[in-house]
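for the recovery benchmark. tokens below, seq after
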């Protein structure tokens, strides 16, 4: 009996139907050559129409396995080809390596609404490869939870004790119907399933190196320069607030896969979910992340303001460039300098206040002039030059006691500066 191949059908499903229709249940097929020797009548489109397509091992790998999804996370085309070759020429290719889980042994999943739709369109249901991707626990088309066990008796759809591929069941062994619809209320689960399908079906491969470069830029903006940076803990907390333990447990994962320090570990050991969930967190979706440009700007985009109150460019954005470095723990630090007045100030990222470290000649000359002017009080000078700087000024600019008293607006001001005046006397 000839059979047709269906849209988004997994190789596991094809194997299951071949075994069912041929009656060869005792023989486990372990490579692609075994299945392409079987006569396929046609390849079906989603609407049920036939597609004129030659079925070979490459076609099965690219259209009916999870290979396209995992190949997205290879560094280059050479790695992808090596991966493809290992599957096409492998003599011990196992079915579960091509169903959607290269490493996972979890049960196959089905959508109860796809079950009905496929039965009406093709006359029989089948396992969808997009439903077997890591993290996909809802159907991205119908937005309902996927079933991996009987909703009534909890019997697994694909028992681990059964080593042969199974056809998609309409009922469990106890006779319970699989047409049990559970609507999904978690938007992130739908977003993840939608992005998984995009990565599975996209003809254009993503550039993993560019993704890592963008994430590096984002991490630098958060003060994270390596796996030991203190600020990675803060970013971990933000990410975990959205993708918490409950969410990750639903995916069959743990919070360990989302640890930011893993970014600096061996690349090939990273779970694809690490990249996908971070792209969703930063941009809302994989496609938006790929389109978005990220600039390392822990202090915002320039030009930056001059903070010298006696400069004519005070509060105006005249500083066109800054020097950025990192202090212990990966915290960004920057030096700002106004070319007009020569005032230099430093700013630590995440702090609200900048600190003047070199006042500049204009600042000093104006402060000296106002210090000698008895009509200008210390209170007024503090507004322009800060209290700390005024105390330093009095350390090396002698004034008389009479002059000192004339500049004190209140008793509190006298008490604030008088100790320093006495020390100079």
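predicted aa per position
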């Amino acid at each position: 009996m000839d059979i047709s191949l269906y849209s988004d059908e997994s190789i596991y499903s094809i194997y299951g139907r071949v075994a069912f229709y041929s009656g060869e249940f005792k023989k486990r097929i372990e490579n692609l050559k075994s299945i392409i020797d079987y006569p396929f009548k046609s390849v079906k489109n989603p609407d049920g129409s036939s597609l004129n397509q030659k079925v070979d091992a490459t076609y099965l790998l690219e259209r009916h396995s999870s290979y396209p999804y995992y190949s997205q996370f290879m560094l280059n085309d050479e790695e992808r080809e090596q991966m493809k070759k290992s599957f096409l020429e492998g003599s011990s290719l196992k079915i579960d390596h091509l169903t959607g889980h290269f490493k996972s042994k979890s049960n196959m999943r089905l959508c109860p609404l796809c079950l009905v739709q496929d039965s009406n369109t093709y006359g029989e249901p089948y396992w969808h490869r997009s439903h077997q991707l890591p993290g996909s626990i809802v159907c991205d088309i119908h937005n309902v939870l996927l079933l991996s066990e009987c909703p009534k008796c909890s019997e697994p759809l694909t028992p681990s004790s059964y080593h042969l591929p199974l056809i998609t069941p309409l009922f469990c062994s106890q006779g319970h119907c699989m047409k049990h619809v559970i609507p999904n209320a978690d938007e992130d689960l739908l977003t993840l399933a939608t992005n998984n399908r995009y990565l599975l079906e996209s003809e254009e491969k993503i550039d993993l190196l560019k993704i890592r470069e963008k994430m590096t830029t984002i991490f630098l903006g958060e003060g994270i320069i390596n796996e030991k940076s203190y600020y990675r803990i803060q970013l971990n907390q933000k990410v975990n607030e959205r993708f918490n333990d409950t969410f990750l447990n639903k995916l069959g994962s743990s919070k360990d896969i989302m640890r930011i320090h893993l970014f600096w570990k061996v690349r090939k050991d990273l779970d694809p979910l690490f990249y996908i969930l971070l792209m969703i967190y930063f941009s809302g979706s994989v496609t938006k992340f790929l389109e978005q440009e990220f600039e390392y700007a822990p202090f915002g985009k320039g030009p930056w303001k001059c903070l010298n109150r006696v400069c004519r460019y005070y509060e105006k954005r005249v500083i066109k460039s800054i020097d950025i470095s990192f202090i212990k723990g990966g915290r960004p630090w920057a030096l700002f300098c106004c070319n007009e007045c020569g005032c230099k100030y430093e700013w630590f990222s995440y702090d609200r206040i900048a600190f003047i470290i070199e006042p500049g000649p204009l600042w000093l000359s104006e402060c000296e002039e106002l210090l000698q002017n008895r009509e200008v009080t210390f209170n007024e000078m503090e507004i322009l030059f800060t209290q700390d700087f005024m105390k330093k000024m009095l350390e090396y600019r002698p004034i008389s006691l009479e002059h000192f008293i004339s500049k004190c607006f209140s008793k509190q001001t006298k008490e604030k500066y008088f100790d320093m005046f006495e020390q100079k006397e």
